[in-house]
Amino acid sequence: AGPCAVGRHANPDAALFEPTVSVQFFPEENGFHAVCQAMRHSCRTYELFEIAHLILAKPERYLVEVKPKPAGNSGEPPLLYVSVPDELPFEREEDAINHVMQHHLGTFFDIEEVETDAPKGNFQYVSRCAFTGTLLAPPNYHRYTQILQEHHAAHIPDVPFDRFKAKLETLRDEESISAWLDNMKKGVRYTYKEQVEGETHRFESAGGARAFLLRTCRNRVVNAAHSARFPGILIKELPPGNIRRSIETVLHKQNRFPLDTANGLRGRLRRHKFHIYKKGSHGVSYVCAVRRNFRRPDQVFAESVGNLLTFLEENPMIPAAQLPEKFLGLTAPVEAEPASKHEGEAAEVTGENQPKAADKDPREKKLLLDLRWLVTEGYVAEYSDGRLYVHPAQKPEKSNKAGRESAVAGSETVPTAASTEEKEPAEDRETEPTAEQAPAEENNPTDEKSPTDETESATENSSRENPA
């Protein structure tokens, strides 16, 4: 199974629900900037899908855009109702207003608890909410209907009001009536933070505060719009309903095969000066900060660089960490046993258990310099898991073969050919933004393996390698 079949995102109900709105995911700007910096610094090559998986892995890394689908044959999509304080979308205006009243009253009002007198009257029984167990009010109390409406909007807006009202419980015992009277001695006062000429600014109930907002500044509470975009971390703030379920369904599908998210990343990555190419006509799209460099048939490198290139061609996809042993024959240093568990954990975090650069063999230092030069000049691709691949050399051209001059390359001398842009093989040219292949066709090119191990663990490794 490849990275598009990540088990932890399994959601069997997602396949049974047809989203009622269009949903798309975009990278959050700060997190995406950090990912780009890490990719540019490492000069490594990543799968486009790998980057999409990395962004979708955590809700703080992406933004959600929701658009309504056209209704019927009219072709005109309905409007969304957007909560202005947090830009969350709702299908009904009343739901958006209730959301603002429940979560954002503090944006408009100073809220304080106050002591009030207990209600006066002859109360024989009191109603209690069957869903929350809250004592509400006696039916003969003058604010009875208002209290029911406020409680329903604040605590159980997903339950139809008629059903909520039909399930009210009636309590006739003196203890319950006394408890309600005690609760009514504690009130909440709402004071509007701004001054509005000719208007009262202090309210003794949420209903009064709500009516004031909708009368004086409705456009700061709710707006009708054709689309809404909000941070992924706010998905959990949406009440259960079609919009939230649509987002969760599309997110589940994108975590399995992030086609739309990956294609949406292409333009942004190009604007950040990354190169995107596809290996073979049906291969996987790769992204790298370094443009690939294809050697000329007559190009000559310094001896150490040429030997390394030959070894990498004979050992395709070898991990860079194995080069000192496999290429130079050097044995890895034996790590000292930590004196205690805590010392071992500290060494793992700080990297003190790794050999320092000053302790490396001179041949290994030279190897690392040569490898870094080949990667940064684009002759070798180092994939996100550390495996190495040499880009193929150009095929000889009869017309101008004799007129070309060879260049000497190495860690001591920078080759003159390195700065020239070589002609790419036809099957390996950079691609314009095009759709990826369907999952069944997402095969690796015949001459190269995928740079990421098609397993869940490889996706986890990718996430750990990026600071975002």
Round the Cα radius of gyration to an integer and report it.
32 Å
What fraction strand?
A: 5-15%
What is the number of E strands?
Answer: 17
Determine the fraction of residues in helical runs and give it as a percent range. Answer: 25-40%
Rounded mean pLDDT is 80
Specify the biggest β-sheet: 3 strands, antiparallel
Structural class: alpha+beta
Terminal CA distance reads 25 Å
What's the total helix number? 15
**Low-confidence parts, pLDDT < 50 over ≥5 residues?**
1-10, 341-355, 401-424, 431-468
What gross morphology would you assign? elongated
Strand order of the largest sheet: 1-3-13
Please tell me about this protein's structure.
This protein is of the alpha+beta class and 468 residues long. It has 15 helices and 17 strands. The strands form 6 sheets. A 3-stranded antiparallel β-sheet has the order 1-3-13. The chain has a 3-stranded antiparallel β-sheet with strand order 2-15-14. Strand 7 and strand 8 form a beta hairpin. Helix 2 packs across helix 10. It is elongated and about 100 Å long. It starts with 20 loop residues before the first strand and ends with a helix.
